[in-house]
Amino acid sequence: MNYKYSLDNSSRKFNCPKCQKKTFVRYLDNETGSYLNYNIGRCDRESKCQYHLKPNGNTTLSKLISIIECQNPTVLHFDNVLQSIKGTVRNNNLIKFLLQYFTYSEVRKAILEYNIGMSDHWKGATIFWQMDHHLNLYSGKIMLYDPISGKRVKHPYPHINWVHKVYGISNFVLRQCLFGIHNLYTRDLQTIVCIVESEKTAIIMSLIFPKYLWLATGSKSNFKLSLLEPLFNHNIVVYPDKSEYEDWHKKTQIFKTKGFKIKCSNYLEGLAQQEGIDLADIFV
């Protein structure tokens, strides 16, 4: 039986998106003879790596969003990230804010490292793409910021949405991960992982203290065990927003009993500032 897509039967191998070994066989489009997206394929290290991402030949979507496979969870093509990054520097309100404090090269590096995209859902809006440590792209959170103050636009309503909701993808199954955790493969076990709540704060702190790996939960309720599992062997320091310390501190004590090497910083609690501030409010 002839299939639209099949694994390349030549001797050519690529670096695996998961283990980074040159043992990755990509899928071919048998009609055009071209490779599919860089992360669609199978690693030959079947017992040690087990990475295998199959194409879905029956899925078609217009405009921005294309899906690799519709199952639990839904995974999107990385092409969506690349498309959203185009024009980000010129038209993204958050990037305009960052350029007031950091150089163009620093901000450009952050855009590429954290996959900071742009959405026309609201003029100047930002997409914070969520890609896990295996480079699976789940979805993107769309948020609108003021280009001068860097604050979220909350009036006349909170400007926050999700890519899959904006484009009306049916039967979408969302799995969340820590924002920025796709950068884990670029760091070794000696790297201290710092976790904050806001994606914007993680980006800003990565620009100020780049030797650490900065990640974000995206919400105070997303500080949970399932999202921390990929970090089990790393040293972790969490920085809750002011007023959230007690809740996050209690959780870190629970996570310690599970074997995690994790600490909860009370740095913001000692500052005579208003409730809800975070590290970015202090350093910028």
From TrEMBL:
It holds the Pfam family Zn_ribbon_16. It comes from the Bacteria. Residues 3-57 form the Zinc beta-ribbon finger putative domain. This is Uncharacterized protein. It comes from Meridianimaribacter flavus. InterPro entries: DUF6371 (IPR045951), Zinc_ribbon_put (IPR047731). NCBIfam families: PG0870_Nterm. Residues 92-242 form the DUF6371 domain.
